[in-house]
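Quick look at the format.
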Amino acid sequence: MKKSILLAGLALFSNVWGQDVRPVRDDIGFCWQRPQMERLMAMLDETEPEPPAMGGLVAAISPHDDYLYAGRVYYPLFKNLRAKEAVIFGVTHGSVRREIGDPQGVLILDDFAGWTGLGGPVAISPLRERIKKALAKDDFIVSNQAHALEHSIEALVPWLQFSNPDIRVTPIMVTAMPFERMEVLAQRLAEVLAGYLRENRLQLGRDIVFLVSADANHYGRDFANIPFGEDEKAHARGIEQDQRLAGELAAGTLTDEKISKLTRELWGDTHLDYRSTAWCGKYDIPFALLAIRRTVLKATARGLKGELLRYSDTYSGGVLPLQKPGCGITAPFSLKHWVGFFSAAFRLE
């Protein structure tokens, strides 16, 4: 009897969530239980300056590196973020591209009923299905496999759900594409997003926020990226370059020219190459900002003004000294292997 009851319960759970819930990809670098996030936030509350209020925030760029590396960079963005739903633009990392055949020039949506969160599922916004119906068929693909393999979007979910257990998300992976294709696809997506805002009378920042998940430079032989060498001077030059690029993008009024300039700095001869910096956000940052800027302009007739919240890297910051954090690190750090990351906020002008 007990066995049959247990099996019936498991079947019911599976039908409601089970296989329909997007599984956790990284169960080491991120926290997936509320007590773990509570310990992390308590430490950051005690050791970090009080972050600014997020009132008026419309969009942001967030890291997706391990929490013990990048916790101080996530913190000023998510501490006071209380939006009811979030559109999250994520990377399509190289390992994922190889597994799914390297689609290009499209967005990747999922078909999960929910996503795993802090001990419970996170709901999907109806916006996702609206996007599928509105965009042309050659503008996107639907791949649960891609979203299950990719960790960049899931990194933001525990931070969002910690502050708002009822958060709804719209996950969007961005693939490689030239800038001209970005402009066309961003315009089409903006039409959909702006229509959703108007019809549901959503207030930017309060009801919905747009988030871009990206890390900055990946430096070292492991990434085939050592333009400055492998000593302290090389590290200093690498983070100086990162800070300049992030600062120029986030400072002041957001324009298409700023976004285009970032791609010229990050890409090489074509959009498939890179120069002396290997950002995993080299596609999702420019595409997302193009789409967000157009959405806000259509919905409010106003522009966006940015602010760099914080920059750091794995070598400079090291690992947060948190005992029994419930999470760990997924990669080493040294002068020969480090990753940069930053958080930035964009508000209405």
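Next, a different chain entirely:
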Amino acid sequence: MTTHEQGVALLGTLVLILILSLLGASMLDLAGREAVSATVGQEAAVAQQLADGAGELVVSWFHHPQSSSVPSSMYSTVSKKYRTADEVPSFFDTAGRSQFVGSVSQPDLRLDADNTLDNSLLNDPQTGLFRALHHLGQVENLKVYAPSTPGLLCTVDTTVATRTGKPFRQSILMQLGAVDLPPLRTAVHVNRNLGLLQPGGQAAVGVHWGDIRIGGDWIVGRVEEVPIKSSLAPVTGAGYDEMIQREDRWVVAWIGGLVRTLQPSSGEQAGLPPNVHQQQSLVPGLRVDQWDYETVKKAAKRHGSYFAIDREGVLYPDGIIQPGKGISPDVALRSTEVGDQRGLIFIDTLDQTAPRADNLGVLTLRTAYVEGVVVMQGHVVLAPSGTGQSISTLSPPGVATGSQASRVPVQLARVNLNGVLWAAGDVTIAGNARVYGAVAVGGAMTSISGGTLEVWYDSDIGEGLYRGVPVVYKAPGAWLAHY
């Protein structure tokens, strides 16, 4: 090989080495960038989880405003401040404006970690509101203020910083809407008569821990069947059939018509007790808790379950009636155990329009245990086929103090419905049923075949808190993250 050829080969080798060196450096730089990008992506994911967790905790404050996890200073912020014309608590005034009126610079609620007290309230690893998220990072700022979209409730603005690796900060804005399901302030409300004025037609209904309101007459067997209100009554899960004398600490009866007895008194109780108020239809009138058909229907389609019903009582999910596609009420409503929450269940009229006398279906409830809010736009036959479940709960607040601490732990046995039964039509009691919650009937309520109903009122329902039904929710399309 000539000297010239050797020089060319050497030059080519040097060029190749240079190219390979450049490629190696590029690959190392790319690998480094990928590692940094992966780290940043991981930190961003952690920051988003932290911010989402903070937002979810704020949502929980609206559902449990009296919980020990909600500071007393925030109670007024997350509680309903307005009252409707019917004295129902609401987040909105009569014009539909939210109680949250603040802005980004002047929010209704602000907690800033730069403030020592706020930082302790937010991030203290032992007692802070977000102590469960302490291993991920800390909440630097939390603000709640007016929504930017009319009709929504508020904006929740959180800024967080991660603890792992290089601190990463992220802010999330989300808007909350409110589910406007009015409270039921009565254990049992019957719009017309309770019972039939005929032999054996007495209404075998027992009410504990709350009021009973009847638009028409209350037909009982004997006057002794009407419970007496007494501050000395034991607070237990015993039914009236297990008591020597029927008495309760909270029961008050408001009757639009009269209490009518089918048999003469057999004991010392000659007249009605003072907790029974008759002829209330005109003066002062009976307070009625109304649930608007369209409002509840919309809420169920968005946050619960919606069913159509045919004339045989078969249910059809999502309101689509197709032959062979229906399911029995037991399959649709059955809860297998305590905690198997069915939420808000709306069963429509036969033609899926507002209830009238000629479009009401019949729902036969044979299910042993249901946990949820059952809204039937028609008639109901209540005939549970099983003994139900035993549940642990708390009595209403004490009469004298009204404090949370005065609530007494109680075990209720053989509960068939843990929640609400709301019927636009009549309710027929064809079996022995127990309810923890409330019952509202748009028509009349009667008993057949010796059927009995016993209701223990859930006082949380009187505050508009229904298990399985959200008080507030994250509005679709109203979530924004920025860095």
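Residues 34-41, 401-405 have pLDDT under 50 and may be disordered.

See the schema section for token definitions.
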